[in-house]
Prior knowledge:
- The chain has 466 residues and is of the alpha/beta class.
- It has three domains: 8-91, Rossmann fold (3-Layer(aba) Sandwich); 100-308, Mur-like, catalytic domain (UDP-N-acetylmuramoyl-L-alanine:D-glutamate ligase), CATH 3.40.1190.10; 317-465, Mur ligase, C-terminal domain (Protein-Tyrosine Phosphatase, Chain A).
- It has 20 helices and 20 strands.
- It has helices spanning 18-22, 24-29, 41-49, 57-60, 81-89, 96-105, 124-137, 152-156, 170-174, 194-197, 200-208, 223-227, 279-294, 299-308, 336-344, 363-369, 383-393, 405-410, 413-427, 449-465; strands at 10-14, 33-37, 53-55, 69-72, 93-95, 114-119, 142-146, 163-167, 183-186, 215-219, 236-240, 249-253, 256-259, 266-270, 317-322, 325-329, 349-353, 373-378, 399-401, 433-436.
- The strands form three sheets. It has a nine-stranded mixed β-sheet with strand order 7-8-6-9-10-11-12-13-14. It has a six-stranded mixed β-sheet with strand order 15-16-20-17-18-19, sandwiched between helices. It has a five-stranded parallel β-sheet with strand order 3-2-1-4-5.
- Helix 7 (124-137) crosses helix 13 (279-294), helix 7 (124-137) packs across helix 14 and helix 19 packs across helix 20.
- The radius of gyration is 23 Å and the shape is globular.
Amino acid sequence: MELSSLAGTKVLVAGWKTTGRSVVDPLQQLGATVVAADGNPAALDDARASGVEGVHPDDAIPSIADYALVITSPGWRPNAPLFVAAEAAGVPVWGDVEFAWRVDQAQMYGPTRTWLVVTGTNGKTTTTSMLETVLTTAGLGAVACGNIGLPILDALRQPEIRVLAVELSSFQLFWAPSVHPEAGAVLNIAEDHLDWHGSMQHYIDAKTRALSGRVGVLGLDDAEAAKLVRISPAQQTVGFRLDEPGSGELGIVDGQLVDRAFSDGAILVDVADLAQRGRAGLLNALAASALARAAGVPAADIGAGLRAFEIGAHRGTVVATIDGIDYIDDSKATNPHAARIALLSHEHVVWVAGGQLKGASIDELIIETGQRLRGAVLLGQDAQLIVDALARHAPEVPVVVVGSRDDASVKSADALMQEAVSHAKRMAAPGDVVLLAPAAASLDMFTSYGHRGDSFAEAARLLGEA
């Protein structure tokens, strides 16, 4: 479908949140009439206040054939009744990222931009932020957008922006089959969102779409991502690893990040100069470097950008040091794979974990990291699943469970976190770390992973004042 064919038609926008609102202006510029579909009455009221007709998704189904196109926000599942009806009626369904790509290719907002895409189960946001810092330090008009917060369409409307550092989730990639970035990276792949995708293979297939452009970048230290080397559709596929790189790879040699993919061993930066020098931070820096090199950024500018980068909140931040014990907030570790990276970055850990595991298995994580644990303090909906895994694979690790379903109804989440941190302090010795790496989502107790991290930091602060 050509965008010009939307003139005089109706387009249904599924989901009236930030991304849904971002598609309205370009659709109206194309001459389409926009109708918003959302199950939240408050969202529909907001749409109508913005001059957009609003309907409940169920009410849109009988008249779905009246629409030329459905544009969906990324969280909607492919088997939603609205999309089943659209398919039956021959109405195409695009994600907002797909629409943004087509708008850019049509040059609605000036010459097409350079797209550098970041995806993976973990590390997307930090890598995308690093990439943005590197690109701006190099003097390129760049911005981080996509899943990181700023809608891509809003970025396209900024004429000074020439390069997009685009974080994309598996949901967004599923709904964006036409996107072919200048370069795209798959950092890692582990079980996540299988309830949405239906199977691990479907999840991997969605991630692989990031490799459909000129350069594909793969995390070779991750077993699943490394397998994609054989099937990468990119014109050129490069990898990155924590060890010495081979030809066509980036890696680390004698404490320096080195590029043997786009040059013959160019030195990018000293590891000692990076703000985040743990395993996760180094992998993120290598991935950001590979994408920037694919876009032609000189080695010196990459080094300057990586040195300038500051760690984002809730991604391995030391929030307190008390009696020789570091308290580290990695609340963004919302699945076992992310928690694995956090745990492997430290020798001796008192682990604060728990929440909503979303069906993910915790056993492999315990098998690999159990010997590092001084103790575990668990809270949240699926705490007992972690208790059981520890009993199976690391029975020597002391375990405390904070709260219960009954407690959660009478105690605040912040009070339970304070209790958890107090228990963790008693388990830790000087030189250890108390690490919040939940391996689970936060919404059973907290409003977000950010709230959970802030609660942990506040609990550590109060402990230091006691």
